[in-house]
Structure formats: C-alpha cells, structure tokens
Fold this sequence. Notes:
Layout: H1 8-15, H2 19-26, H3 34-47, H4 53-60, E1 65-70, H5 74-79, H6 81-96, E2 100-105, H7 109-119, E3 126-130, H8 138-143, E4 149-152, E5 162-165, H9 167-180, E6 186-190, H10 196-211, E7 217-220, H11 225-240, E8 246-249, H12 252-262, E9 269-277, H13 280-285, E10 288-291, H14 294-309, E11 318-320, E12 324-325, E13 330-333
Parallel strand pairs: 1-2, 1-3, 3-4, 4-5, 5-11, 6-7, 6-8, 8-9, 9-10
Antiparallel strand pairs: 9-13, 10-12
Helix pairs in contact: 1-2, 1-3, 2-3, 6-14, 9-10, 11-12
Amino acid sequence: MNAERVTLEDVAARARVSRATASRVVRGEQNVSPKKMKAVRKAIAELGYHPNSAARTLVTKRAGVIAIVIPEPDSRVFSDSFFGRTIQAISRELDRRDSQPVLVFFSTPEESRRTEAFLTSGAVDGAIVLSHHQQSGEIDRLRNTFVPTVFIGRLEQDARYWVDSDNYHGGEEAANALIESGCKHPATISGPLNMIAGKDRLAGFTDRLADNNLQAVVHEGDFTYRSGYDAGQKLLPAIVAGEIDGIFVGSDLMASGVLDALKETKTTFSLPIIAFDNSPLAEQLNLTSITNPTEQLAREATNLLEAQLSRTWDGNPVVLPVALIPRRTTHTFRNSQN
C-alpha cells in the first residue's frame, strides 16, 4: 500500500479496532488496552502510516512540539550525565506520543527573554523544564508565560506542576548508611543551596543525623566535578586527622571529584562515602549511591504535561521514591608518594 495514501481508517481496519481507538493510540493517549495498543502500533508499522501533522494541528489546536527547557550554561549540561540521560528519556516519551522535542538552553537574562518569547509564540504546546535555581528569578518568568509547563524538580512556591525524586528521603538514607558504617563525625558536600534538590538532600541528611545526636560538617558544592574535587582537598586534612570519618556527597559527579582529591593523600586511610544519582558513573566507580530515576522522572513529567494539555490533571505534583544501591561503601586511600 502506498504510504502516502494510508489513512487512519486503514490502520484501524488492519488492527481490527475502531477509528477512535486508532486515533487515541496515534495521539499517545493511555486509555487503550495493551492488546489494542499493540495491534494498532503493529498496523502502523506494517502500513507505514504517518499522521498528517497539518490536519492534526487544525483538529487538536496543537503544534505537536514540546520544548525541553534547560536554564543552565552549556558547560554544565554537557559535563553532567543527568541532563543527557533525562533529555533522552523525555525524547523517547514524546516520540511515543508523536510529539517533537525541541531543546532550549538559556543562562543569561537576554537568553531568558528570548526563551519567553519563543514559548509564547505558539510554536510549542508546552514545556518541560530541567534543573532550576531558586534565586535566578527565571522560574517566575517561565511560570508567567501561561504555556503549560512542568518542572523536573520541586518548587517551593505555591505551584504543584512538578515531578521530583524524594530528595529528602535520599538524604535520610545516606545518613542511615553512614551511621550503620559506624560514622561518628560525618561531613557532607551538598548541591547548591539555591536549588531545592540541594537543600532537600542536605535537610534529610542533617535531620536524620540529629535524630542520632550527630552533626555534620557541611560544605556547599554545585553538582560539578570541580566543586567535589575542591571540597575533597579542603576536607582532606580533617579526614587524615580523624575529625571526619564519613562523607555524603550530593551527586555522583561531585563524588568522582572527591575520590580524585583524596587519592592525593600522603597517608593511608579508609573512609565511607555515599553519593546520590546512581548514574553509570556510580557503577563505574563502584560507589554506593542513592537512586535518582531519570526514566521515571521523564515519564511522569510527560504524563503530567499531557494531563495539563488535555485538562485531565488532578492538580497534584509527583514525588518518586528513591533507594540506596549498595556497592563499595568504604574506600581506602593510600600514600600517593609511595
């Protein structure tokens, strides 16, 4: 059959479902039985069906394009695998819904204004925002576009259109792991404290320590390798002196910097280290780490945005559970001069 002439009716006939059911599958709606969904997708593949985007836009009033907005400098985005993994996962989810992702980066006020103009131009149906800082002032700008928007990351303001991992509980789990390892003098290298993720991970960690009459040395990082390395160098003398006997690092990438800094020791010591993200880097470095489920975050963010667009959203944010993935907890560092 000529793909250019394949219609939705052809797909429905091949799949032995109604046109309405075939249409729901093409639009990415979820209220279709798995059996019928499989049949429709098989028919689409066999017939080479491609939706008529122009016609769909006229009917649905949608452009079929979703912006993935990242208010971070390029250097941050391309050095931290969290962004790449999450962008890929969102793109896969949008592809399932026959929507086209477009990446939008900004890190300056001028770029922010251009982003606002783009989002309100009618070129996109909605936006998913990755990574945001409390003090940047850009969250209000994005919220005030009146374009359906979902944030990956909890918002403190009176807004509920976000999905996030349970960062607070992740901090609690990190504290539990250090306590169980016998740690009495913990330290933490937090994420930036103008980000909710950084604040929540730190709060969960310090609150659970307080429950056990422990207090942590706190060093603020910024989720980058360099900030972890610098913090590791600053904490090294206290570690060697026995004043710090365990560290919770707020991200795997920072933890890799800490490990490299501690390898420069002129003595030998062992230290429990817990990280956060459970990224491929944690597996590579054999780090015990708290999960930060990018696939689920992407799926839930896309679902929440679709619910906004279809006006079926229940008004609640989504909080995903996290868990500690045990690998090596205690790391041994030896005199680098030998």
